[in-house]
Write a structure and sequence with these properties.
By secondary structure, the protein is α+β, with helices and mostly antiparallel strands. Helices cover 32% and strands 32% of the residues. The protein contains five helices and ten strands; from the N terminus they run αββαβββαββαβββα. Strand 8 and strand 9 form a beta hairpin. Helix 2 runs antiparallel to helix 3. The mean pLDDT is 95.
Amino acid sequence: AAALARGAVAGARGVALVEIPHLAQITLRGDPGDSGFTVAVRAVLGFDLPLAANTVAASGEVSALWLGPDEWLIVGAPDSEGDLAVRLNAALAGKHVSVVDVTANRTVLELSGPSARAVLEKACGLDLRPRAFKPGQCAQTNLARTVGILELGQGGAWRIYVRNSFALYLADWLLDAMAEYAIEAEL
């Protein structure tokens, strides 16, 4: 956390990187064409799963990221994974589904500030311009020779879900990519 704070850049071209550790993460797989599945999930989450590719639905501290035609990443407050998994499993009992706690698999880095998109564009081949990647969207992609999930929040901050084994490398890479904006701020 201290290294991330030292790497933050203030000003009109500022950018900051923080870790949001321990967010609950549940991989949910099921048939979105089965109304019993979608109704049961809505009862647990309080909102409908996103059915359009690369979109996010959310309510309160819980969100669902579309990862595939029958796969979502359910994200919740830290330490809520047990409760989420139990409630989803109970609501979906008897259905052909998969509910897997993957919280320990990834951490979340958050990149924010006016230069956040420019920093990410150095790491990623996706078109991240506002006309192509809007708030409420997500995508699985290669990031600086790692793999992760990008999510653009309503406030303009980018969440990066990255495997724990790659998190330090990616954080270092992003800090290095942010450094040029500190030099520009000094000029």
